Amino acid sequence: MSALRRPRGRALLAGVGVLAVLAATACGTDSATGSRTGESSRKEVYRAVSEALDTVVRSGFPGAQVVFDGPDGHHVLTAGAGDLSTGAPIPEDARVRIGSNTKTFVATVVLQLVGEGRVDLDAPIERYLPGVVRGNGNDGNRVTVRQLLQHTSGLPEYLAGRDPAAPGSGQLTADSDRLRSAHYEPADLVRIAMAMPPRFEPGARSVYTNTNYILLGMLIQQVTGRPAAAEIGSRILEPLGLHDTYFPDSRETGIRGPHPRGYHEINGHREDYTDLDPSWADTAGAMIATPTDLNRFFTALLAGKLLPAAQLAEMKKTVPWDRGEPGSGYGLGLIRQASSCGKEIWGHGGSIPGFGTHTGVATDGTAVVVTVNQLLADRAASEVVNKAFDTAFCS
Questions:
Q1: Lowest-pLDDT range, 54-58, 102-106, 325-329, 376-380?
Q2: Are 337 and 345 in contact (CB under 8 A)?
Q3: So which residues are the catalytic ones?
Q4: What's the rounded Cα separation, in Å, for the pair 368 and 299?
Q5: SS3 of 126, please?
Q6: How confident is the model over 188-226, as pLDDT tens digits?
Q7: Which terminus of the chain, N or C, has less C-beta within 10 A?
């Protein structure tokens, strides 16, 4: 059963106070009445989201959590188990693997470098990584930085997708037991990709490809002289005070601080998949964070606190992409997400064996993260998670 955690009083009171004053000023109503109306509305939202989370757990996920931040304060709703051995719920301040949300951090640093005049969005990647994108028809002179950010490069994928790895390709299977303890350097991952031909002409369409963001991490290091993790730390995490967000150290397999267990199903058997070496994901998906930190990051990004206006505008120029729902679009490491109520929502999302996170911020400043502690291959199960996310914004 889902449970509403008590909101942090200071944040909630600040949000209610602003809403009550606005209501009294605009409509001439009593502020107490406005406060009661707002509180009743919020309770309806939390009830609807709680029901959606219960549905997520009934569909087969061990546990699920929604974290709200914004004008109405900080609120956490949780259902199911964060640890199946004890039955304990997902902790309120849980650190989780955030998968491809990492890409938005990477894209932000790249666009900061663009704003500083150190990177040209429409320059070929060959300018920054000479000789790296080469072989079997791949050509770094024909692929731009923008195309890497927007997944329009056409470059091959080093990870096997939903289908088994192509015979002889060397593609990695993310949930293989061998990969949990194996260690890779970014150059290793790119070499796997370059052993295959391009999938399509650069710029022809957008197909989600992790290779693109491994290359962008290498670009950051080449331009700045420091690893991408260090640049993310000094440019984003430290200024925003995101103390519970980090890039795992080399060969670090655990998760620091309070966290749920992450589960994965292999050959019909559910296994504890919490601990792994995420080097195979690197700048495409290795980071760890709390949902609260993710909300703070995406809110700051969309408020223009991390990028100049020109670069944020570039980030929000979207194209249709292969994994998008009708109405969604992929920008430069940022996704415009469709909603049933027509709200404009920007964020990303991430999945890695053990964890899935769905992130977004609406134009009214409401930020939401939905977390589950297992990935299910069943399409219907994925849809119930999407439904919980939509309910958080549209109920």
A1: 376-380
A2: yes
A3: 100
A4: 10
A5: helix
A6: 999 999 999 999 999 999 999 999 999 999 999 999 999
A7: N
